[in-house]
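Chapter review: from sequence to fold.
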Amino acid sequence: MTDPSFAPRWAWALSGSGHFFTECLEIIGGLGAVDLFVSAAAEEVLRMYKQKLPEGTGLFRDRTASAAPVGRFYEGRYHTLVVAPASSNTVAKAVLGISDTLVTNCFAQAGKCRVPAIVFACDTAPEMLSMAPGGLVKVFPRRIDLEHTEKLRTFEATTVADSLVDLEAAVARRKAELAQTPA
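The token string follows.
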């Protein structure tokens, strides 16, 4: 049930991937009302990349066994979930229905509450360049990682972004949809 005292916000879940991590934080900074759901692994990545979270964002850390903050999805607090970047571990768990981290619980609860999701999967091509703390590295996603990304594309109300450009476009489309929705 939606509480009329607040307007729904963006929910953004950060996993433990460094793939375009800083660029994702820049996008978050431009959205306005965002609650960040940060996995334990994402907290490590934030420290490795020496990143600070955008001003004005709500912050939920992966500190409870039951991922208690995801109850906010049932309160109608979110109009959209973005999981970006989404590590191969997060994508695999989402595809298999495993909800044992704050990020995978966000994805599961968003689906159960019919909140549209945008997932920026890290493993989308057989050969890729990815940013590491020391610079660009070439990575070769495994076949199973690519298969999980393809399977995720079949999920209802889920958009899979293959690149930073795709992520930016998906977020822009969702913003346009929201602007068309009567308050």
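Two observations follow directly from the output. Helices lie at 21-29, 40-48, 71-74, 88-96, 102-112, 143-152, 164-180. The CA atoms of residues 124 and 150 lie 8 Å apart.
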